[in-house]
Structure formats: structure tokens, C-alpha cells
Amino acid sequence: MNQAEEYQREMGNLLARFTEFKVKYNTKIKILSEKESFFSEAEKIMKSIDVRMQKEESGLYRLVR
């Protein structure tokens, strides 16, 4: 698997996880009824996005420069 394919695969997984999270907590009532899991899952999603952005900055964008 080349680097581009790896990035696409990882992004697809992250997008699927984020979409699932968004649908699960897309209303105030849903968030309030599951506050603890909302905050826990939000933290995991944000960390995953941060890791992805750092990986792009340090790896992918260097290839384009």
C-alpha cells in the first residue's frame, strides 16, 4: 500500500467515526441524556482529528512542498 492509499484509508475510517458520532449526538436532548459518553467520545474524536492533522502536516504536506 502506498502512502496516498494509506491516507485515504485512514481518512475514510475517521470520517465514518465522525459521522457516526454526529448522528448519535445531533440534538441537545441526545447530548444531555448521555452527557458522560458524549464528552468521552468527543474527546476521542477530537484527539483522532488532531493526530490526523499533525500527520498531514509532518508527512503529507512535506511531499507537496
How many E strands?
Answer: 0
Structural class: mainly alpha
| Number of H- or I-type helical stretches | 3
Which runs of at least 5 residues are low in confidence (pLDDT < 50)? none
Q: Shape, please?
A: elongated
Order of helices and strands: HHH
Radius of gyration: 15 Å
* Mean residue pLDDT: 86
Strand content: under 5%
Please estimate the helix content.
Answer: over 70%
N- to C-terminal separation? Answer: 22 Å
Largest sheet: none
Explained architecture:
The chain has 65 residues and is mainly α. It contains three helices and no strands. The longest helix has 30 residues, at 35-64. It is elongated and about 45 Å long. The model has no long low-confidence stretch (mean pLDDT 86).
Question: What are its keywords?
Answer:
mainly alpha, 3 helices
